[in-house]
Amino acid sequence: MKTTLLTILIFCINFQSECDDYQSSMSDAQSYADDTYTNAMEIYNADNLDDVQYYAQQTMNSVDDTISSASDAESYASDCNCDDGEDYASNIQSYAEDAYIYAQQAYNADDLDDAQYYAQQVMNEAENCESEASSGENACD
């Protein structure tokens, strides 16, 4: 009987730990999405293509971090049987992947107008990531 109770207690602690890790990963994803937005604003406000390329690279790095955190969150949500959390994390990954493509296009742009267009698209996707992370942070309480 004591062994069964101990096993249940350990399971509950591990389960709660996974849910806490989910929340932490979602918070990280939101923070990295904010960094993505900030870097995209720098692209948008750049006055030369060298600056565009620098900030586009920074943007791609922060998008990578967003994707990684969202992937971790999705895994933790799965471990604690939280379907809503998995959905939020998956949505973040999808928006972030789109942001990465736009950041690459800004990096490769031949003129500032094109870079600004792509930067605006990155900002839109970053806002979507932030919104999903904010909405989903407590999905797995």
What does this structure look like?
By secondary structure, the protein is mainly α. It has a single domain (18-135), classed as Four Helix Bundle (Hemerythrin (Met), subunit A) (Up-down Bundle), CATH 1.20.120.660. Helix content is 89%, strand content 0%. The chain contains 4 helices and no strands. It has helices at residues 2-45, 49-79, 83-107, 112-136. α2 (49-79) packs antiparallel against α3 and α2 (49-79) packs parallel to α4. The longest helix is centred in the N-terminal third of the chain and has 44 residues, at 2-45. It is elongated, with a radius of gyration of 18 Å.
Strand content: under 5%
* Computed structural class: mainly alpha
Give the total of domains.
1
Which CATH class applies here? Mainly Alpha
The mean pLDDT is 90
- Counted by DSSP, the helix tally is 4
Share of helix, binned: over 70%
Largest sheet composition: none
Secondary structure: number of strands? 0
**N-end to C-end Cα span:** 29 Å
List the helices and strands and how they pair.
Blueprint: H1 2-45, H2 49-79, H3 83-107, H4 112-136
